[in-house]
Amino acid sequence: MDMICDLHNTTSNMGLTLIHYSASDWVTLHICKYLQTKITKVPVRVLVLDFPINDAYNLESVSKHGFTLEVGPQPQGVVRADIYVIMKEAVDLTIDWIHKFNSGTVFEGGDVEVFKFIKSVDYPRDPETRNLTAAVHPQLQDRDFCLLKRGDPLFLSFSGETVTCEEEEPLHPFFINEGAYYEKGIAFHLAKKWTLTVPSVQVQTTNSA
Amino acid sequence: MDMICDLHNTTSNMGLTLIHYSASDWVTLHICKYLQTKITKVPVRVLVLDFPINDAYNLESVSKHGFTLEVGPQPQGVVRADIYVIMKEAVDLTIDWIHKFNSGTVFEGGDVEVFKFIKSVDYPRDPETRNLTAAVHPQLQDRDFCLLKRGDPLFLSFSGETVTCEEEEPLHPFFINEGAYYEKGIAFHLAKKWTLTVPSVQVQTTNSA
Asked: Tell me, what's the ipTM?
């Protein structure tokens, strides 16, 4: 399969996030760059999960190119028109790019700002029961991709205490308080900003790669 | 049972809404009035479902007094600290009121603005499959308790058409796009604003009522 797009929703305030596994897949990065240029109503972020490919869990990992389109916030079992419209625009523009690429359009190279996955952070839990003892702090909730520094609030315990960030290095949290990740032991992931420089691409170049 | 509070969350942007079944239960209305005075961080609205009591579906309908505390928006399976804090404050203040009342405090009468349930509106659906053909319009989503007038947008169809309001009288929508109400055929409810005048209450007065 040449390309797969895996369409996802999240309860986190992720806006439109394009997630993929390789920092050297120029075709996918060019589509991300194209969507970043064309979509202006919401922030379009690119997230690189630089995992060994055997650890990949999204559908597009079985195709040569592609990404997961993650749009949120939206609760499970709810259709929000704003989220639907963003997803539709992103899918339409992806197909648009493919048509242009297959027709011989040259896409110029340049820089793409991406977020690179670093680590996951779990909720504070009771050591015996494993039940949560705190929720994501109101000052962190909905602030996906903000810059999180040492001392910033992370969690608010159910008895009212604030748990703060102890990371040495400022990092960017994402998938903050995603409903499906409680059972996985993930309150949020942390990422680092990174600039990738992509070369110009054209259909023949890709075929010979 | 003298009093029950039924604690609920919703995917709708309901803030803190106090729901009960009787426009003549002065004890419950006084607690609502007390919460409206004390809680200033979020709007506190009172909703009267003036149903025949046999149609009542909330837990407090089996007690002499009480209400449902409805707080949102929060997705299913997610704990939001802001929602948790609002709920805790409302429960603490309710217990506070009961202690004061039982200690003989006189609560002065006055006006309470409430919303009275009028009717429910379903999503546009395919007449044969009953599948949705539209979502709540982005201009209505999250605007619970706004004033909805004839011609205002209600739904955005999946092919891009806007469905507008045809009500003769301006009304207030609530429980807009609640996840649990798709299966009940409810996109939102409509209410009318209403001012109730409650008399002063004191513990002996209530006992003789």
From this structure: 0.90
